[in-house]
Amino acid sequence: MNARFPLAGLSIALTLSACGGPPSNADAQHALVTLLEQSGAGQISDVAEFELNGCVEAKDMAGYRCDTSGKVAIDIGGRRVPVPIGKNLRYVKEDGTWRAYAK
Fold first, then answer.
1. Helix (H) or strand (E) segment spanning residue 8
2. Beta-bridge partner residues of 93
């Protein structure tokens, strides 16, 4: 048996595992802000106490489902309105960027 084949398999496995996995907190936070702003919620001025928990690979669609919590401040009519976040969201990496989906 040639010694190169096990090493080649190991390097391929390591390369694939580096691309996979759930988003980081920073990537998920950016994806959530984008989702809220694109949905018409308003301009997000601040995100506090953002946290992902219990991320698991989605079974019905691509991506990861994660319990998402924190607080966002939305600018509405010149006022900052605090809104708590506590939702299970799906995160998918599309074209190198993480996106959040409510469903």
1. helix 4-19
2. 98
Token output for 34: 């984008």
Record the tokens describing residue 53, joined without a space. 């928990």
Half-sphere exposure of residue 65: CA atoms within 13 angstroms, side-chain side:
10
Residue 40, φ and ψ in degrees, nearest 5:
95, 15
Question: What residues are paired with 64 via a beta bridge?
Answer: 57, 91
> What length is written for the chain?
103
CA separation for the pair 42, 55 (Å, rounded): 27
How many angstroms separate the most distant Cα atoms in the chain?
71
Overall average pLDDT of the 40-68 stretch:
95
Tens of pLDDT, residues 64-78 = 999 999 999 999 888
Q: What is the pLDDT of residues 77-91, one digit of tens each?
A: 889 999 999 999 999
